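User: Hey, quick favor. My workstation is busy. Could you predict this chain's structure for me?
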Amino acid sequence: MPIWKIGEKGPTKLPKTNLKEEKLLEEHLEDWIVTDPPILGEPLLVIGRQVLIPDTKDRLDVLAVDPQGNACVIELKRGKLRDPVAVQALRYASYVSKWKFEDFENQARNFLGKVDDHDFNFNALYEAFCEDTGVDEIPTLNQDQRMIIVGSSVRDKLGTVALWLRDHSIDITVIEMQAYKEGDSVLLQPTTIVPFKVKRFANAGRLRPEGTPWVVDGKEGHLQKRCSAKTREVFEKLDKILQDNFEVDGPRWNQKDYVAYRVNNYNWVTVTTTPSSLRLHFFVKAGTLKADDLAKQLNIAKFDQEDSLSEKLNLPSSVIIKSRNEATERIILRLKEDFALESEAFTQFLSAAYRAFPK
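Assistant: No problem, here it is.
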């Protein structure tokens, strides 16, 4: 996909180049990713670079974690992506699959220069990262592993291997980092090749170990085990409204307590499923919406933090807004079966919350 520059005389296609011609090395790719991980198209917490695997001679290029708690092995190639890089990434992912929380903590401590800092708290860093991306329930770290392979172009053989791995529940992403010239400047265009964006149901039917029903079949776990018949009906109506009216990635079923709808790889709204109600958490810019106004607009109660637990449980559908930091807030709607989901007021609220999404 070329890049076009719009000038006074109309569009001009920028000439394509490559990293090798521009004398840019794999270490430059590493620099860019470590400095600004979203260059890969999603939020990542980088905790290692050129990570030496104990008892082997292997070094993986970049190690990160994502907001779902997955360990991400990132392998970089300046030139064309060939078949062995997939095998290499698989090997590294198999190593990391054996790591415990303390291994990630020690790796992050070394990478961030916190070896002698007794106040360093990796768990707090990890939780803050997850919360900043819109995650409410902090997932268990390293419950699964992913591979992200980055290079200048993908050969058909590698693409075929990557798609086969995904079809067999191995989470692999392949990104082409194309380069263009404009004068003395080099412009980069990262493009996700595998999985294609249209493969929104790639994880359907994904099998996982027994004992984690929300991961073995998250949809059944939420709708059949966590919801009652009444809240299941409310959820199904809500899901249709969200998918019909907004560009969202979801529902994502693979967390124990909630179902997520994502925008630009960040959680916009999560839905905590229970037998008595649905609890919706919207991630928004601070100060864009007011709890009093929403309570009046939606004809629901304002959730009061000073209420006793018994009073809270007896409330009808309700709303509260909680500050997360100076820039963002979380709107929490507690919806019971009698809430008017299909009302114009609720549609207007969803549109306002969508516009207020900070990412």
